């Protein structure tokens, strides 16, 4: 990375990313190719949307293109992946995908953040219906894109993303946001919001990305926190996961802790049962 880029702020990086033709994950191309072969002319927008919801880079491409078309037609905002696919059409989405470069997933930092984003979306799709959310896909999309700023830094400026990680591990910062500010001059959350604004992402999606303005935004944040803690290997991960379960229980008081951890495949059965038991014990102590 050129030395002068190290002095860029969040808005400058967001403007830089806007000029980039984003790649997609290799597995996404493979999944779509297989699905096209299997479904043929029966390929539906729902098939593509389900695959795309596991690839944050592809979702960003679809949203940006759909919003570009929408602005010229003055239609409603594109707030789900399925809506984006339906606006663009199955054929155009397939062409866009197959003509996209493949992301280099060999860098550990990029692979970790991308996998964490995909997990956050899956958790959101599991939890959002539990509070009778009218459109869980909106929450899942926001959860998938919450770490957009960090993901794009690992893709295009890995030295900067690594510097923030080194700052945290050095002990000079006690939290990730502090380490990011000290190493980069901005937090990755700030970068994500700048990207959302400069790309003219839907207002609803931006509110969910903020993570605090409503119960749905809070749900989005808890899903991303849970994914981050579930993939963590430090000693405090279990305690943090229990705190996440208690937080989500406040939004869904009728949901059991066993239901909340069910189907989280990144955690083995023993770990899920242990977390549910710890959360239940903490809940009973506080109520």
Automatic annotation (TrEMBL):
<dbReference type="InterPro" id="IPR052340">
    <property type="entry name" value="RNase_Y/CdgJ"/>
</dbReference>
<feature type="domain" description="HDOD">
    <location>
        <begin position="22"/>
        <end position="215"/>
    </location>
</feature>
<dbReference type="Pfam" id="PF08668">
    <property type="entry name" value="HDOD"/>
</dbReference>
<protein>
    <recommendedName>
        <fullName>HDOD domain-containing protein</fullName>
    </recommendedName>
</protein>
<dbReference type="InterPro" id="IPR013976">
    <property type="entry name" value="HDOD"/>
</dbReference>
